[in-house]
Amino acid sequence: MFKRSGKKSGISTKQHSAARIRQRRMIAIALATLVSAVALLWLVLRKNDPVVPYTWRDFEQAFERGDDDRMIAMYDELRLFRADLISTDRSSVQSVITETDQLIKRVEEKVALRGKALLSEAAKGESWTPKETYRMARYVPIATPPFFEHIHAVIADYLEGNVDESTIVRFADNVVKILPFRQEFGTFFSDKSTMTAARELIDKVLKSGVDKNREEQLTLLDGILNNKTFKTVKPLIHYVHDKMMEVKRVYYGELMPEIRDHMYHEQTYDAEQKIKRLIRWFSEDEELLSYYAVCKEVNPERVIFWRDPVEHLSLKPLIADPDRAFDGDVFQPAADRDLVMISELERALDVLYQKDYVLINERSLVNEKGQLCHVPVPEGKKPLVLVLEDFYSSGPRTESGIAHRLELNDEGQLIGVVLDLDGTERRDRSFTAIGVIEAFVERHPDFSFNGARGTIALVGQFGLFGYPMAQVQDLAWQYNAKNQGSEGIKPVSSDYEENRNVVTAILDALHRKNWNIASGSYHRISVPFSSEKDLLEDFMMWERWIKPHTGDVWAFYYPFGEHAELYPKRTAILKEHGLILQCGYGPTPYWHQSDGYLYVSRVLLSGYNLRHAKASGLDRLMSSNVILDTGARR
Question: pTM of the entire structure?
Answer without folding.
Answer: 0.82
